[in-house]
Amino acid sequence: MRTPDLIGSAVLLFILLYFLLVYDQVFIAKLVKLLPTLADKKMAVAIAHDIESQISRYLLTITAINSSLGAVVGTAVGLLGLHNPVMWGVMVAVLNFVPYLGALTGNHLHDHWCSFEFRQPGICFDLSRCLSRFWHVGRKFHHPLGYGTLA
């Protein structure tokens, strides 16, 4: 698959997902209208509501995990002396929604900002190592614990 095809497919996926989320009741009503028996209709509605509740719990859990990680990183960055700890905490919380690339991007931005602000490799390395460890702990321990409560 070429890059334009991949980007087009991703855009189409997000557009369809948006309309599915906005018009979920219309989708369920049309699905119920297609099914022949009352038992099938009840099962389709139950499955749709179960999927909706599972997705809601997942989004709530991942938001709580990312928010807590952002608060911890913002506090640590503030204690270590970097300016705008709230910005760094929010950035970590938002970027953590993107697996792998979010942490990589956040670490890259953090490293560059530290090198501009401190101009001392030792301090930059310590801050970078601190941020990397928080992301690592979040991915290895905090995420599985949070996801484990979903079942």
Task: Please estimate the helix content.
Answer: over 70%
Helix-strand pattern: HHHHHH
Gross morphology is elongated
Integer-rounded radius of gyration: 21 Å
**Helix/strand structural class:** mainly alpha
Major sheet details: none
- Spans with pLDDT under 50 lasting ≥5 residues? none
Mean model confidence by pLDDT: 78
Number of strands: 0
N→C terminal distance: 35 Å
The tally of helices reads 6
Classify the beta-strand content into a percent band.
Answer: under 5%
What does this structure look like?
The chain has 151 residues and is mostly helical. The protein has a domain at 53-148. Helices cover 86% and strands 0% of the residues. It has 6 helices and no strands. Helix 2 runs antiparallel to helix 3. The longest helix is centred in the middle third of the chain and has 43 residues, at 38-80. The radius of gyration is 21 Å and the shape is elongated. The two termini are 35 Å apart. The mean pLDDT is 78.
